[in-house]
Amino acid sequence: MAVPSCCVPGFWVRSSGQCLGSLFTFVSKRLCSAAAASRPMDAQQLAERLRAQKEKQKAKGPVPTNPVQRRVRELVRFTEQLQRVHPNVLAKALSRGIVHQDKDLLVINKPYGLPVHGGPGVQLCISDVLPILAKILHGHKAEPLHLCHRLDKETTGIMVLAWEKEVAHQVQELFRTRQVAKKYWAITVRVPVPSAGVVDIPIIEKEVQGQQQHHKMTLCPSYRMDNGKMVRVRTSRNAHLAVTQYQVLSSNLSSALLELQPVTGIKHQLRVHLSFGLDCPILGDHKYSDWNRLAPQKLSVGVLKKLGLPQSKARHIPLHLHARQLILPALQSRKEELNLVCKPPRYFVHSLRHLGLKMPSHDQNGDEEASHPGPQ
């Protein structure tokens, strides 16, 4: 497996109370020291390596002067590096981002761009490093951790793991029977009307015909308009019941910060309900902002100006969807419910500021990330 270069900048996504980051710095120190110990380089070899690194950096183009563009570039670079780091390094980084730990559960802050399961084109995922993470925390004889639920690759935030398989099954059952309260934060393009409500529209997966044939989740409403009258239609047997509660926390003319509470747990439910149900796609959702094509999200001139980006760079904007809070009922020996809260990643906080949106006051005061500027 290829490894990242020894001279990459520090990773700036942080977790609740602890820094998930300095992943790049950690990688570089370990790899550089190992390389130096294994085989010393003479002056000519060192010069050739430095020259190659300089040419590689030059090929990447000039460093952007705009701080937002630099952060976007760093995020793209990080997600590429994330698939090339050694599993031991990733497990160590995840151990530094622990939100909660007890004898039954381990809760981590899932970083952006990291898939939970393997698949085509996936070189490294969370499930791959669970045995290593368990050994880091409980010693070499520790049994692998178990996944209790999943998040999309682009979604950040709360992820629950269990030490025992039986406990994992119990937590999975809590999710399946909708006994776990879930709250997400999302930055949307445009503002939903009304400012609070419930989207109760079934969802189905369909094939999109066009230049790029692909599959998307989409709405499958139970009613349609027929000559000005509302007519109930037969629901497809493949459609899934999907219910999302939403509330606007902050807004302006062109964007909003929303709190989302999914009652059901259908694939891409929040993204579909916001984009196709409320006409307010999530910032950085390049799949569901347009039904007919797969293309970078088209943003208004006002939003692009606030973000400091041209439309040609919009494809680098990450999905601004964060699993902020989970409330688990009493489980095993724990007699009280477990309230888990996870701060949003740094790029999320920066986008809020540039768009002129505000977090609730109790989050602003405790936001460690807001007080630690990332690399510029």
Tags for this model:
10-stranded mixed beta sheet, disordered C terminus, alpha+beta, 10 helices, 376 residues, 22% strand
Can you offer a commentary on this structure?
With 376 residues, this protein is of the alpha+beta class. It has helices spanning 23-38, 43-59, 67-82, 87-95, 126-138, 165-176, 269-277, 301-307, 346-355, 361-365, and strands at residues 98-101, 105-110, 146-147, 156-162, 181-189, 196-200, 203-208, 214-219, 223-226, 229-232, 243-251, 255-262, 321-328, 338-341. It is 30% helix and 22% strand. α4 crosses α5 (126-138). It is globular. The model is unreliable at 1-38 and 365-376 (pLDDT under 50).
- As an assembly, this protein is single chain
Q: Provide the gyration radius in Å.
A: 22 Å
Determine the strand fraction and express it as a percent band: 15-25%
String of helices and strands? HHHHEEHEEHEEEEEEEEHHEEHH
- Total number of strands: 14
Unreliable stretches covering 5 or more consecutive residues: 1-38, 365-376
- Helix fraction, binned, reads 25-40%
Backbone structural class? alpha+beta
Main beta sheet strand tally, sense and closure: 10 strands, mixed
